[in-house]
Design goal:
The chain is an alpha+beta fold. Among the domains are: 389 residues, TolB, C-terminal domain (Neuraminidase, 6 Propeller); 67 residues, Leucine-rich Repeat Variant (Alpha Horseshoe); 93 residues, Alpha Horseshoe (Leucine-rich Repeat Variant), CATH 1.25.10. The protein is built from 32 helices and 35 strands. The protein has a six-stranded antiparallel β-sheet with strand order 9-10-11-12-15-16, with no helix packed on it. A five-stranded antiparallel β-sheet has the order 1-25-24-23-22, with no helix packed on it. Helix 6 packs parallel to helix 8. The longest helix has 18 residues. The two termini are 25 Å apart.
Length: 969
């Protein structure tokens, strides 16, 4: 079960996909030997019998299509990403190991400055054969432009660092003037992560995503004095009329793609495995690669949402649609169709509810091909109900290779998947219809038509249709009621009077959007606030309660907290995937500005008994104020303890308090808090250690020394002594290290000893070193390398042939050089001639040699498993077996021998997200390296290659340096 085999022999798997040398770059005038002509490529696809796959557009009419959509006439507009991956006219000053580049200047908005090669082209099918035969260009000379959308009298274009608007009032496909800059400051550090996928929401906002390895310092020119900063992946939105920019939700994968379903729910894909993407709710915080992409903007989130649940699958589906086109056979309606650029195929998944969110399950691959260069990157629903797919057509689809010049800019295709038996649909130019006629299209079965109608009504803002839309809302309970509500808002007819009626509408989606539209402006009347709180009590539909929690956070505390208090009473939401955290974030939003209002809420003793409060809010609220650490907030901790009505509630408060002080000592508390803690029983023995309580410390040391105590308890107490400064613990830790044969306790003791600087620690560890098992010796090496005095002792042991030089990992030896000591440098130079490792050319030779060996097919998989377990399995999980240090290999594309060989021979070439290493230097001369396991505004936790976690208070960290080298040997 540990191997992943395929029918194709290894010898037939081309190494070109990931390993082509720089000398083999494909340029504008060079050939790509593996490329098929468009007509030949079209013959390589297989689709279900009831569907047909047709190539509708290809080079030379388009190249590098990254994004497509359709206008009200049914014409296809295409963003051609021809400039990628290098911005024109900029000089790269530097780049980091994550391929984030720094350029010498900020480019001017077009048409100023150096012109890029990107363009937006328009294509039309005129003769009825399904082929787009008429072509024109709306604008060219763009520079790393990713997406666009028509509306409000022109074309909106994302051309980082700008959001541009090209006026075209007469709709003649020729810009009326140079573009207007609406937003500036989107990051350009990584051109495969820049802001992208611009589209209209049903509420009249423009929605888009920002990728993982860029930042934002977004400003509205002429309006803002201070930019809005962001780091990494998120969904953002902009309202053209009010000129408001805001982050809609934060986190996710390398967000590239935005889908809005028939209820206006927001989704984006993911560049990782085991999911099809993220369901974003307003104001949500989502998992991200924290080490690589930075922390969440709010240090008090105390949790985040995961991607939509899914079974184990290889990465990745970055872009998808939920099909609601009505022309494919009925079994496809409501299915998720996603592009898989690495595998070169389209996947279809079932979408089902998961509490207030969703989960997915793959049903198959409706589009597959034998052409290895098919690289689908965008997918859209068309006016005809067909599914359109943009294919960049590349030998490989990897930013690292593209950034190194390995890219074929000559190609690009667009395909359509449609019902094999559907008759040709008549075209309708929706732009020529009157507003009243457009209202009649709001019940069209194809979502594309409904969304296009909403955009046109938003352009017109025709007040004459408001009475008709009100009537539609009143008389209908299904989708038409929701579409009419959106249209009413876009036409300027939505107000609080109407909202008080639609808050009680039979359709829960109408209730959801009533709540959202009401609260988007951050204030409502007292009458509406009371109605919202009432709705929170009565609401039976979980997604309405979810939106109430999201929207409550936007309101003033006196309006927000009554809504929250009523939502808390829904015990059924205690285990929901979103609601507990949404309610916490609504409370936390007022924690600094309105603490007394929150305490007033907590005076209601019945509230403490609610499951959501007990299991999710109490510990977080206490942790929030304790982690802040100001005197006022610590006094609030005391007040919470004094308000607690029972032992269970007090225990939850204490849990949050202890969590806040992990990794640091507990001194200088206000008298009021010290008294409240004592009244609460003083907390656990762990808290006593952190407080410096003599009795607790001695009790803990006695427990550690007691062989009859459980290993788990002893190890946990040992860990605490590694986080606080209690020198009297050193003898006990050394005794455990020397006397026990339990590897868990030995490793815990060695890790904890790193907190202390006594010179005899090094001596004692080296005395016991020969008796340690291999895994414990690895932890001992990490400890000895962390301080200069011990490092010298370690190297002297190597010099005396007591420890073999090759027993020390090269990365550990590199770490020793940071001690900047002559004797250390001398011994390293003597015993390790070359710390740089093999050159790229040498590694390429190794890869070629191993590729040849694999092709011969004489390997023994049973011996291979033994070798894997001994080496790779120490750090990697495969089918639930192995160490939890490096990436999980279960979902890795293990049939891609080319990529696997590259990652084994040259692991630093491409470090997987979340497994980047750091070197920490402390103010007391300690060094450590490892993966960033956890962090907050007080402590940083590294996990070393020895599998141990080391906690560092931030105030003791002198430098925290990202490492270019992988920790993988």
């Amino acid at each position: 079960k540990w191997a992943n085999t395929v029918d194709t022999q290894v010898a037939k798997v081309s190494p070109f996909e990931e390993l082509v040398p720089r000398s083999a770059l494909v340029g504008e005038n060079e050939s790509n030997p593996g490329a098929l002509a468009p007509e030949e490529a079209a013959k390589t696809f297989t689709v279900p019998d009831d569907l047909v796959w047709q190539q509708v557009l290809s080079e030379p009419n388009i190249r590098q299509p990254i994004f497509l959509n359709f206008d009200e006439r049914g014409r296809m507009w295409v963003m051609e990403y021809r400039q990628y991956p290098y911005p024109a006219g900029l000089k790269m000053v530097s780049k980091d190991k994550f391929w984030r580049a720094v350029y010498d200047k900020i480019p001017e908005p077009p048409p100023h400055g150096v012109k890029g090669a990107d363009r937006i082209s328009i294509h039309e099918e005129t003769n009825g054969d399904g082929q787009y035969d008429s072509h024109k260009v709306f604008v060219e000379g763009l520079n790393i432009a990713t997406s666009f959308v028509k509306g409000r009298g022109g074309l909106w274009v994302l051309n980082p660092p700008y959001l541009l608007f090209y006026p075209d009032e007469n709709n003649d496909d020729v810009p009326d003037s140079d573009p207007v800059v609406h937003l500036s400051g989107f990051g350009m550090q990584d051109t495969h992560s820049v802001v992208n996928s611009l589209r209209w929401g049903p509420d009249g906002w423009l929605y888009a995503t920002q990728g993982s390895t860029v930042s934002g310092n977004v400003i509205r020119p002429g309006l803002d004095k201070k930019p809005k900063y962001s780091m990494g992946q998120l969904v953002w939105r902009y309202h053209p009329e009010t000129k408001r920019y805001e982050i809609f939700a934060e986190g996710g994968g390398n967000a590239f793609g935005v889908e809005l379903d028939d209820q206006g729910r927001v989704y984006s894909g993911h560049n990782g495995g085991n999911t099809r993407g993220f369901h974003y709710v307003q104001g949500g915080y989502y998992r991200k690669g924290f080490g690589k992409h930075g922390p969440l903007s709010n240090p008090y989130t105390f949790g985040y949402f995961e991607a939509m649940k899914h079974h184990s699958v290889p990465r990745f589906t970055h872009n998808f649609i939920i099909y609601e086109g009505h022309t494919l056979p009925s079994q496809y309606e409501g299915r998720l169709f996603g592009v898989e650029p690495l595998q070169g195929r389209v996947v279809m998944s079932e979408v089902s509810t998961d509490g207030s969110s969703y989960m997915t399950k793959d049903l198959g691959h409706p589009v597959i091909t034998t052409d290895r260069q098919f690289r689908p990157v965008d997918i859209k629903l068309g006016p005809d109900g067909g599914i359109y797919v943009a294919d960049m057509y590349e030998p490989q689809i990897s930013h690292r290779q593209h950034f190194s010049g390995q890219i074929d800019k000559t190609n690009g295709r667009i395909y359509r998947l449609q019902n094999k038996n559907i008759p040709k649909l008549l075209k309708t130019d929706l732009g020529k219809l009157s507003s009243k006629e457009l209202v009649g299209w709001l019940d069209h079965p194809n979502r594309w038509h409904r969304q296009t109608v909403l955009r046109l009504l938003g352009d017109r803002k025709d007040a004459s249709i408001i009475p008709l839309l009100k009537k539609r809302i009143e008389e209908n309970t299904g989708q038409l009621a929701l579409e009419s509500l959106w249209a009413l808002n876009l036409s300027g007819g939505f107000n609080e009077e109407i909202a008080l009626e639609t808050l009680d509408h039979e359709n829960p989606a109408v209730r959801i959007w009533t709540v959202r539209l009401l609260c988007d402006n951050f204030q409502v009347s007292d009458k509406v606030a009371i109605a919202l709180a009432k709705r929170a009590v009565e609401e039976s539909y979980v997604q309405v309660r979810s939106q109430l929690a999201c929207s409550a956070r936007r309101l003033p505390a006196e309006q927000s907290l009554p809504i929250v208090a009523n939502l808390i009473k829904h015990d059924e939401d205690e285990s929901d995937v979103h609601l507990p955290l949404l309610l916490w974030w609504a409370v936390e939003a007022k924690a600094e500005s309105n603490p007394e209002t929150i305490l007033g809420l907590m005076e209601d003793k019945t509230l403490w008994q609610q499951p959501i409060v007990q299991k999710h809010l109490l510990s977080r609220l206490m942790r929030r104020y304790a982690l802040s650490g100001t005197r006022n907030d610590l006094l609030l901790c005391a007040k919470l303890l004094n308000l607690s009505p029972d032992k269970t509630s007090t225990a939850e408060l204490m849990k949050g308090f202890e969590e806040a002080f992990k990794g640091r000592t507990l001194t200088g508390l206000p008298v009021e808090l010290a008294d409240a803690l004592a009244k609460a029983g003083g907390g656990s023995i762990t808290l006593g250690i952190r407080r410096g309580d003599t009795e607790a410390i001695q009790k803990a040391l006695d427990t550690i020394a007691d062989a009859k105590s459980s290993t788990k308890t002893r190890a946990e107490l040992i860990q605490v002594f590694g986080e606080v400064d209690q020198p009297k613990a050193v003898p006990a830790l050394l005794e455990v290290m020397q006397s026990t044969k339990d590897a868990t306790l030995q490793k815990a003791a060695l890790t904890a000893l790193g907190r202390y600087s006594a010179e005899n620690i090094g001596t004692k560890v080296l005395e016991s070193y020969p008796k340690f098992s291999g895994e414990v010796q690895t932890v001992a090496q990490t400890l000895l390398a962390s301080r200069k005095a011990w490092a010298k002792q370690l190297l002297e042991a190597v010099e005396a042939n007591k420890i073999a030089a090759n027993a020390l990992p090269v990365d550990l030896v590199r770490q020793l050089t940071f001690h900047r000591d002559d004797r250390i440098a001398e011994l390293i130079s003597k015993h390790w001639e070359d710390l740089a490792g093999a050159s790229t050319a040498e590694m390429q030779q190794q890869i070629e040699l191993h590729t040849k060996t694999l092709a011969e097919g004489n390997a023994d998989p049973y011996q291979g498993k033994v070798l894997y377990t001994k080496t790779c399995g120490k750090c990697h999980i495969l089918f639930e077996e192995g160490g939890r240090i490096g990436p999980n290999l279960t979902t890795y594309k293990r049939d891609d021998s080319s990529r696997i060989l590259m990652n084994i021979v040259n692991p630093s070439a491409e470090v997987r997200e979340g497994f980047e290493s750091y070197l920490i230097l402390t103010t007391e001369g300690r060094t450590a390296s490892g993966f960033l396991f956890d962090q907050d505004n007080r402590v940083v936790v590294l996990r070393g290659v020895d599998g141990q976690n080391i906690t560092f208070p931030r105030d003791q960290i002198e430098e925290m340096i990202p490492q270019k080298k992988s920790l993988m040997p």
